[in-house]
Design goal:
Elements lengths: L2 E8 L5 H10 L6 E6 L6 H7 L11 E4 L8 H13 L7 E5 L6 H7 L3 H4 L2 E11 H5 L7 H9 L9 H11 L3 E5 L6 H14 L5 E4 L7 H4 L28 E8 L5 H15 L1 E8 L6 E8 L2 E9 L8 E8 L4 H9 L1
Parallel strand pairs: 1-4, 1-5, 2-3, 2-4, 5-6, 6-7
Antiparallel strand pairs: 8-12, 9-10, 9-12, 10-11
Helix pairs in contact: 11-12
The structure holds zinc ion.
The site of zinc ion has 7 residues, from loops.
Amino acid sequence: MKIPATVITGFLGAGKTTLIRHLLENAGGRRIALVINEFGDLGVDREVITGCAIPGCDADDVVELANGCICCTVADDFLPTMEMLLDRDTPPDHIVIETSGLALPKPLVKAFTWPEIRARVTVDGVIAVVDAPAVAAGRFADDPDAVAGQREAADTLDHHSPLEEVFEDQLLAADMVLLNKADLVDAAGLAAVRRRVEEELPRAVKIVETRHGRLDVNVLLGLLAGAEDDLDARPSHHDGEDDHDHDDFESFEVRLAGSADPDALKFRIEAAARDHGILRVKGFVHVAGKPRRHVIQGVGGRVDGYYDRPWGADETPESRLVVIGLQGLDRAAVTRALQG
Ligand SMILES: [Zn+2]
């Protein structure tokens, strides 16, 4: 019998890691292997998952693919990782793949048609996690000025903004869409988000509202989609292209000297996100007098923080943040703004 694999896609900060934490906490005895891919070098998502101390969640079952977006590294990274998981003495019951927020799901689903993988694994489902408040705020809409400019240039083929294009590609591949952070949007806003998502979906796909990524595991897993046999039903902006790139986006790391006051830092991140159009900030912060790491999760202008595991005996407490935005970020100015 083939091992089912679930692909979790969704734009930066939509809540994929939180969803997966919830999934692992409620796995109900399933042995789940997790493949995590993120944009930026810091490896925050794997740390957030393994820092949770979920019983039965073995760090060996969490594999990080750090060499760029998974859609670009299928042959070099993804396929060897899958074979490694499948060749284990006790193979997992289910494989969950968290793609980076900028990854295109279709090339990844396509990788499951490779003979050595197809014989042993099937894509149970592609889950697209949508940041409902971000969609409600119009973050994935066309920039009206850019559209007008391109229409004048008679370029009708592709008028999408980089954000919109990634967002749409993720929806186009989905077997189920989660409207996450639904508690942060009112009923009218949520209805508008649902309409916007339905507009993009190429076929009937279940749409579920979620809060904090909480969803019955039996809804999430077991979709039996066989997505790798169904690629034509999942169009992409990059169909017919040999290659794609992620040049529209960039990331870099900011280190803070010594410890930081989380409230002041939160304020600085919010200001920097507003002033510099940062899409995502995440990382770990050393807070003086606190034995635990402080986790920072910023999406646009909204920043959350919490303490997770204690710093290890072999670790030096430090403060490091990864910043992701559209190409052309003023790194020096952002660094100054975050360092305060
Ligand atoms: Zn790619």
